[in-house]
Every structure is written in structure tokens, then in C-alpha cells.
Amino acid sequence: MANLWQKKYPSDEDFPELSKHNNHMARCLTKEIYAKLRDKVTPSGYTLDKVIQTGVDNPGHPFIMTVGCVAGDEESYDVFAELLDPVIDDRHGGYAKDAVHKTDLNFENLKGGEFDEKYVFSSRVRTGRSIRGISLPPHCSRAERRAVETISLDALSHLTGEFAGKYYPLSGMTDAEQEQLIADHFLFDKPVSPLLTCAGMARDWPDARGIWHNNDKTFLIWINEEDHLRVISMQKGGNMRAVFRRFCEGLNKVEEAMKKKGHEYMWNQHLGYVLTCPSNLGTGLRGGVHIKIEGMSKDLKRLDDILDKLRLQKRGTGQ
């Protein structure tokens, strides 16, 4: 509910105008679902209207299907399951409401993963993680956001060897540190996309946000960006196996340190790892390479067709 007086009005008078919207939320939300869920509230106070607001405010592009909703806490996926389960099924190309997620983060099981470095300049794997018992970024209070930072930094301070590193708070770094992070392409900025700002992601910026990376600059964690933690493993060249090994080990080491203080990642058998956007549920994993494909880049339509068939995404270009 938007406010405490909302119940004075019938739900059909409150239903959002979605006739021109192109997002998964708009495709799945019906007046019947809205009527059933409108007055429900999660234990932390998140409501259906907050779940869908970013999708209501951003109709989307006719050729780009966005998700159109976010979770405010772990319980959102249960309380508003009658909307979010269809959204998840729609976004992920089929995922039943009683499905059990299969997660395999044993890097030994990776087949292949070593690419020809004549074409691959760099390799990376990223994911997000959420700390159980704390509201997600669209809904968290200032105290909760600061707790995420404190819990994370305590865990990171116990990392050693290739994972030892340093934290750079957005509100407290020197000019030299900022310039170096920009040069390394590590720095993240205040969100300007309406998809994020309408979801509440930019509140209190830059309070309790920052960047941590290991001394080798191959393992990076953003704190309090779109998720509690955004974890990235990367390196030059095409050795994705080494990148994935570091990724898996680093994730586990951070959670092991957190568990010693009574904290853990949000996870359940149905959704896997729980994150803010339904598009990132499960492993939350995205693998990517920066590649040189001179010939194919001359025919972008053909390139797009090939990528669609391989279920790959083109995520930017480099010089």
C-alpha cells in the first residue's frame, strides 16, 4: 500500500495504468493479483506498490523488455509470490513456482574455460550477494545500509593471501585514490537511470557505499550499489577457469568470515541466492569477455542474430 489511507479506496481504483508498458511486471500483473496483494506488507514494511513502482514509472522501450519490479527484502519473494513467481518465470524463459534451483559453484566442475588470447583481451565473472536479515537497497534504512558496510568490512579484513586488499569509501577517498579507481574502471557512480532511481537505489548517496579490491586488482567488491554486495573476479587474457576459481573461492571465504559473526547470504532452495532484481536470482552469475571480432562487427545485424541464437548479450564496445 502507498499509504495508510489507501484501504479507503477499492483496489480497482488504485490499479496502475500499464496499457503502454513493456516490462515483465506489466505483463504479469492483473487486477485480480493487485487486489489480492495490495494491502499485504512484509515484516520490514515493504508493499506491492513499492515492488512495482519502478515498472509503473518506466514504461520501457518497445524493443527492450525490462523487469519492472524489485524486492525490498528477502520476504518480498514470498509475500508477493503471486506476482513475482510469474515475473521470474517470464524473465527466465520458464521457471516453475515449485522449482528447486541448482547451484554449482565448484570450479573443478567447469569444462573448458580457456579462450584464445588473440581474440580475448580480458575475462570476468560477477554476481551479487545479500546479507540475511537486512532490507535490500530499495528499502533499507541508513542504519541497515551502514550495517551492511560494517559486516562486509569486518569479513573482508580477515582475508589473506591473494584476497588481501583495501577498502575505498565513496565519501572518504582521496583525489589520488579516486583518479586511480577511475583509471582502473573500478569506480561506480550515483545511479542516474530512472529504473534505479525510481526503485530507491540512490537514496542518501554516497553514505555507506564503497569499493574494496584485492592487492592484485583481480577480485573486487562493490558495497551497497544495486545489491548489498556486487562481487567481481577478473583478469587480463582468456583464462576464464582462473577467473572462476578465484570467484568461487573468494565468495566462500567472505561468507565463511561472515558466518563466524552470525551472518550469512540470503539463499533458499527455490530461488537460490536472493537479490534485489528478479533477473539476478539463482547464482546471480554473469560471465563476460572483452573480445576482438573485427570482421563480424562490420555486420551488426548478423552479429545480433548469432548472439540471440547463442543466448549471449552484447554489453558495450571498446577501442
Automatic annotation (TrEMBL):
Chain positions recorded as ATP binding sites: 122-126, 185, 230, 286-290
Record InterPro entries: ATP-guanido_PTrfase, ATP-guanido_PTrfase_AS, ATP-guanido_PTrfase_cat, ATP-guanido_PTrfase_N, ATP-guanido_PTrfase_N_sf, Gln_synth/guanido_kin_cat_dom
EC number: 2.7.3.2
Keyword Nucleotide-binding: yes
Domain Phosphagen kinase N-terminal: 6-93
PROSITE patterns for the chain: PHOSPHAGEN_KINASE (PS00112), PHOSPHAGEN_KINASE_C (PS51510), PHOSPHAGEN_KINASE_N (PS51509)
Matching Pfam families: ATP-gua_Ptrans (PF00217), ATP-gua_PtransN (PF02807)
Entry keyword set: ATP-binding, Kinase, Nucleotide-binding, Transferase
Gene Ontology process terms (BP): phosphocreatine biosynthetic process
Record-annotated Phosphagen kinase C-terminal domain positions: 119-319
One Gene Ontology cellular component: extracellular space
Family: Belongs to the ATP:guanido phosphotransferase family.
Protein name: creatine kinase
